[in-house]
């Protein structure tokens, strides 16, 4: 079984399944947008200098940008 790691460690083009979110650190809008355990996400863009990360939520084709500091609290598994 593979260990989960934070979303910010994925490279552009990689896909992973969300395993857990640290709900105390993330706003409720993340859940409303579909970032839930079991959801498959793909990294579409990573801005330089710790800028935003563009992720696509597979089941809705939604493309969103989140801060790297927020991605640290989303744990995924390949």
TrEMBL record:
Ferrous iron transporter FeoA-like domain span: 5-78
InterPro entries: Fe-transptr_FeoA-like, FeoA, FeoA_core_dom, Transcriptional_repressor_C
Lineage: superkingdom: Bacteria
Gene Ontology MF, one: transition metal ion binding
Native source species: Sphingobacterium corticibacterium
Membrane spanning stretches: none
Gene3D superfamilies per record: 2.30.30.90
Signal peptide (residue range): none
SMART domains: FeoA
Protein name from the UniProt record: Ferrous iron transport protein A
Pfam families recorded: FeoA
Keywords: Iron
């Amino acid at each position: 079984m593979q260990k989960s790691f934070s979303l910010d460690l994925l490279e552009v083009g990689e896909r992973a399944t969300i395993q857990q979110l640290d709900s105390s650190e993330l706003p409720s809008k993340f859940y409303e947008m579909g970032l839930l355990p079991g959801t498959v996400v793909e990294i579409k863009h990573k801005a330089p200098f710790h800028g935003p990360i563009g992720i696509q939520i597979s089941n809705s084709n939604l493309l969103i940008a989140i801060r790297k500091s927020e991605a640290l609290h989303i744990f995924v598994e390949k």
